[in-house]
C-alpha cells in the first residue's frame, strides 16, 4: 500500500531510456509574461508588481550586502519554486520539487556560496556570529557547537521543508481520491468539494513556502556580511 502510494512521485515517462519527467522543471518558463507587446497585458502588469514588491523587501533584508542586481537571484529562486509548485498541482505533470534531488540542488549551492564568501572575506565576523553577545564564558563552547550544527543543517532543512510540504499535500489528495470508487453519489459530491478546498489550500501553501524559503535564503545571505 505504501509503495503504491509513493509511486505517484516516481518518474515514469521515458524515451530511449532517458527520463523526460525532469523536463517539467523548466516548464515554468512558459508562464513568464513576455514584454514585447506594445501594450502590456494584465498578466505582465501583475507579475511585474509582484517582482517589484519582492525586490524592495529583499533589498531591505540584505541591508549593507545589497548591490544592484543582488536580489535577482532570490527573485529567480522564488519564481522557480512557485512555478514548480503550481505545475505539480496539475494532473499528469511530474512534480520535480517533491524530490530531494531538486531541493538540495537549490539549497546546497546557495548555502556553500554564502559560507565560503563569509569565511573567506569576513572571517572575524563569522567567528563573532558563533557566540551571541552576553553569553556566559562557561556556555561559550556549547554555543559554538550549537551554532555550528545550526549552520550545517541549514541546506537540509530548506530542502526537507520544500519536499515535505509538496509530498504531504499530494499524499492527502491521493488518499482521499482513492476512496472515491467505494462511495455513494452524495459522498462523492462531498469528496469533490473537499478536493477543491484542498487544491485551494495547496495553492496557498505553494505561495507561502516559496516566499518562506526565499526569505530564509536572503537572511542567510545577509548574515555573512
Automatic annotation (TrEMBL):
Gene Ontology molecular functions: proton-transporting ATP synthase activity, rotational mechanism
Keyword entries, A-Z: ATP synthesis, CF(0), Hydrogen ion transport, Ion transport, Membrane, Mitochondrion, Transmembrane, Transmembrane helix, Transport
Organism superkingdom: Eukaryota
Pfam families xrefs: ATP-synt_A (PF00119)
Lipid bilayer topology: Multi-pass membrane protein
Stored InterPro entries: ATP_synth_F0_asu (IPR000568), ATP_synth_F0_asu_AS (IPR023011), ATP_synth_F0_asu_bact/mt (IPR045083), F0_ATP_A_sf (IPR035908)
Keyword Transmembrane helix: yes
Record's keyword annotation contains Iron: no
Subcellular localization: Membrane; Mitochondrion inner membrane
Major place of residence: membrane
GO CC annotations, alphabetized: mitochondrial inner membrane; proton-transporting ATP synthase complex
Entry's transmembrane regions: 20-39, 66-87, 99-120, 158-177, 183-201
Record family assignment: Belongs to the ATPase A chain family.
Function (record text): Mitochondrial membrane ATP synthase (F(1)F(0) ATP synthase or Complex V) produces ATP from ADP in the presence of a proton gradient across the membrane which is generated by electron transport complexes of the respiratory chain. F-type ATPases consist of two structural domains, F(1) - containing the extramembraneous catalytic core and F(0) - containing the membrane proton channel, linked together by a central stalk and a peripheral stalk. During catalysis, ATP synthesis in the catalytic domain of F(1) is coupled via a rotary mechanism of the central stalk subunits to proton translocation.
Oligomer status and interactors: F-type ATPases have 2 components, CF(1) - the catalytic core - and CF(0) - the membrane proton channel. CF(1) has five subunits: alpha(3), beta(3), gamma(1), delta(1), epsilon(1). CF(0) has three main subunits: a, b and c.
Entry-linked PANTHER family: ATP SYNTHASE SUBUNIT A (PTHR11410)
Protein name as it appears in the record: ATP synthase subunit a
Amino acid at each position: 500500500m505504501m509503495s503504491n502510494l509513493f509511486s505517484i512521485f516516481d518518474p515514469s515517462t521515458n524515451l530511449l531510456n532517458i527520463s523526460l519527467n525532469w523536463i517539467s522543471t523548466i516548464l515554468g518558463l512558459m508562464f513568464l509574461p513576455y514584454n514585447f507587446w506594445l501594450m502590456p497585458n494584465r498578466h505582465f502588469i501583475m507579475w511585474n508588481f509582484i517582482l517589484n514588491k519582492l525586490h524592495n523587501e529583499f533589498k531591505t533584508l540584505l541591508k549593507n550586502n545589497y548591490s544592484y542586481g543582488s536580489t535577482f537571484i532570490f527573485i529567480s529562486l522564488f519564481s522557480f519554486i512557485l512555478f514548480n509548485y503550481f505545475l505539480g498541482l496539475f494532473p499528469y505533470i511530474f512534480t520535480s520539487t517533491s524530490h530531494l534531488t531538486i531541493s538540495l540542488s537549490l539549497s546546497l549551492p546557495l548555502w556553500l556560496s554564502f559560507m565560503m564568501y563569509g569565511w573567506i572575506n569576513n572571517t572575524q565576523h563569522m567567528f563573532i556570529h558563533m557566540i551571541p553577545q552576553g553569553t556566559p564564558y562557561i556556555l561559550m563552547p556549547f554555543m559554538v557547537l550549537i551554532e555550528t550544527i545550526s549552520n550545517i543543517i541549514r541546506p537540509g532543512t530548506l530542502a526537507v521543508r520544500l519536499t515535505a510540504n509538496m509530498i504531504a499535500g499530494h499524499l492527502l489528495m491521493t488518499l482521499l481520491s482513492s476512496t472515491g470508487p467505494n462511495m455513494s453519489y452524495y459522498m462523492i459530491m462531498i469528496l469533490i468539494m473537499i478536493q477543491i478546498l484542498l487544491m485551494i489550500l495547496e495553492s496557498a501553501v505553494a505561495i507561502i513556502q516559496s516566499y518562506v524559503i526565499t526569505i530564509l535564503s536572503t537572511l542567510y545571505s545577509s548574515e555573512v556580511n
